[in-house]
Amino acid sequence: MSAIAIAATTNPATTSPATTSPATAASPLPRFLATDAPRVLAHLLTLDADDRMLRFGHGIRREGIVAYVAGIDFKRDHVHGLSASNGEVVALAHVALRAGELDFGLSVIPACRQRGLGRALFEHVMALAPQLGAQRIVCHSISPVVLHMVAVRGFRRPNGDPASAPRLDLGASHRA
User: Fold this and answer.
1) pTM of this prediction?
2) CATH of the domain spanning 21-174
3) Are 146 and 139 in contact (CB under 8 A)?
4) How distant, in Å, are the alpha carbons of 22, 85, 132 from that of 100?
5) How far apart (Å, rounded) are the C-alpha atoms in residues 161 and 24?
């Protein structure tokens, strides 16, 4: 893929009206709908085995990715990203909140790396967490880039256990 013009917005027909809600107004990243699932799937399937390992924290085959995307609840979870002018999803964040604990996954296609897209996704996650009422953010990624970003933001492994996922407990002052 040669030069890619990143679209700041998606097609209005596939952009959720929720993108203008207070929970997402802090960021220009569009929120994807269930109708965008094929584009999300195509994006994740472009990741090679190493990138899938870094993104998911474990080896995952095509069938696992298909099941993962089929299991995304686009109304409950927040799936945001950036698309090329041709509609291809080039950077993706999946944010899920369960019982006050927010976890997230980030991915950027190889041709679009080192342009700040991953950092933009991560900063979006950080801004979204308190707006959603998260008490804690957990990072299951094993990507060195993502682990560096979370360490800089104060994420720590419980009891220093290297097998534990880094997490950041949010104080009441960080929650909306």
Assistant:
1) 0.79
2) 3.40.630.30
3) yes
4) 18, 36, 9
5) 33
